[in-house]
Specification:
The chain is an all-alpha fold. It has a domain of 62 residues: Orthogonal Bundle (DNA polymerase, domain 1), CATH 1.10.150. Helices cover 64% and strands 3% of the residues. The longest helix is centred in the middle third of the chain and has 32 residues. The chain is rod-shaped, with a radius of gyration of 39 Å. 9% of the residues are buried.
Length: 136
């Protein structure tokens, strides 16, 4: 009699072992697949909250676009320092309502640079608006 390993002399035990391993692998794969495929359904409150956040962001973005368009439209217009209203003066870059009030209080102006010589605006502030202001 020859000396062969037991797995060759008793093949049914080796096959039973392989079947057990195959079943274990199949069960593990199926559990992994089913666990990965199931998704948590969002709850209605979460959906409402996400919708509200998206709406708020859209509203903010729309305001920014409108402000940019307004600035773009007013950029090409010149403002007369002697006749402009407070709202017209505040369309100029860096001019607040307080500064616009000081410009109005310091009228009349012979030259646009008078707002600097009268210490109403700084030279730096004037440089930002000098192409958009006139005195007629």
């Amino acid at each position: 009699m020859s000396r062969l390993p037991r797995r060759f002399t008793q093949p049914h035990r080796f096959c039973e072992h392989l079947i057990g391993v195959k079943i274990f692998v199949i069960i593990a794969l199926l559990s992994f697949v089913f666990t990965g495929c199931t998704q948590k359904q969002p709850n209605p409150d979460e959906i409402r909250e996400k919708t509200a956040d998206a709406t708020a962001q859209l509203k903010s973005d729309t305001k920014a676009v409108v402000e940019g368009v307004r600035e773009g439209l007013s950029r090409d217009k010149t403002v007369n320092l002697n006749t402009a209203t407070d709202d017209q003066l505040t369309t100029l870059p860096g001019v607040t309502h307080a500064r616009a009030g000081r410009v109005i209080a310091g009228r009349p102006y012979d030259d646009p640079h008078d707002v600097v010589t009268r210490h109403i605006l700084s030279e730096e502030e004037y440089k930002r608006i000098k192409d958009r202001v006139v005195t007629k």
